[in-house]
Design a protein that fits this description.
- Chains A, B: Keywords: DNA-binding.
- Chains A, B: It holds the Pfam family TetR_N.
- Chains A, B: This is Transcriptional regulator BetI.
- Two copies of one chain form a homodimer.
- With 208 residues, chain A is an all-alpha fold.
- The first copy, chain A, folds into two domains: 59 residues, Arc Repressor Mutant, subunit A; 142 residues.
- Chain A has nine helices and no strands.
Chain lengths: 208, 208
């Protein structure tokens, strides 16, 4: 029993690692080579996993894609949780700027570029759209809630609620602008300009 | 001579109309059915044009796609020119709101959804990217310049320049949010919030 149980552990661990490698390769394949490159067979090859093992974990492309998006969203949400300032810290323009920069980093990262490929494919694929809409809604809620908390905006502040929504739309637009070219120099200036304004709007600073 | 010249006219006119129909069908195919649906053969069928005639106008898919994007950008730019308020009119929050709504309409329209499919494809296709980057840069410049003019922001106003850039990024993000669901109800509230803040930032209104 002890031996069997010991030998089962590494196998579960191996299986977990294989799954993770496949999900990571799915994100990389989507971001680098686009939607058509992210099939179970191509991702298995990219991950150095046999096609049979890949299909054991993900029998269909849809299962692979949705699991990869779930993983991305969970990772991003967990990362932001660990970075949110204490709720008792006062609001400040530095805190607003840090929160905006963090969410802009999310929307200009590899994960967003991968998600964009899935969105574009889902725009003309109702079955795929049905699978990813709940994931996307869950992520949008989490991103909004965490950005509110990171800035120190009260959940009851209706204007703050809308301003954070606008900020997420802004960040999404910056993500799209970064898809075809490196937009980082322009982006830094535009982010600073919006953050100054946002701090004023949230009542953190006096108008310049 | 007169007869020959007269009979050439309708043929040129027919050819121009066929070209327009093909370009319109390309936009519709991209927006409704995605990148993979926008081939010369599929677009010809959609437009009710023979494959041979379509290939006469557009020998390659790349030629068809870039011509369709050029047409879209020219149409959008011409439409915005006709709507810009006189340069001597004073800035006002109503003028800012109208300009933002107009550019948000552009980024949430069928043309943007079509362009998004091309962007997503170009992200992993260097040859396509090289073709559409100049078009995209030209459109971004025109959209920025016209939105500045529509709001009445002086070309020398550096803060205004950045705020209009941020507004275009915001509009692009709203366009992306509208890809998978009808986001119009949420969007109306967020646009109003953005515009209130933008008017304050541009010095049009007193802070609320």
């Amino acid at each position: 029993m002890t031996v069997a149980s010991n030998s089962r552990e590494p196998q579960q661990e191996r299986s977990r690692r294989t799954r993770e490698r496949l999900l990571r390769s799915t994100i990389d394949a989507l971001a680098a080579d686009g939607w058509s490159a992210a099939t179970v067979a191509a991702v298995a090859e990219r991950a150095g996993v046999s096609r049979g093992a890949a299909q054991h974990h993900f029998p269909t492309r849809e299962a692979l894609i949705t699991a990869a998006l779930e993983q991305v969203f969970d990772d991003l949400t967990a990362a932001s949780d660990s970075e949110i300032a204490g709720p008792d810290e006062p609001m400040s323009s530095a805190r607003v700027l840090a929160a905006v920069r963090r969410i802009v980093d999310v929307y200009t990262g590899t994960e967003f570029k991968a998600a964009l490929q899935v969105w574009a494919a889902a725009a003309s694929d109702p079955a795929l759209r049905k699978l990813i809409l709940p994931l996307e809604a869950k992520f949008a809620r989490a991103a909004h809630q965490r950005t509110m908390a990171a800035m120190g905006v009260s959940p009851d502040d209706e204007k703050g609620f809308r301003l954070v929504q606008a900020t997420l739309d802004f960040a999404r637009g910056l993500g799209l602008a970064d898809t075809l070219t490196d937009d980082s120099a322009r982006r830094a200036l535009v982010v600073d300009t919006w953050c100054e304004q946002l701090a004023v709007a949230l009542g953190v600073d006096e108008a310049a």
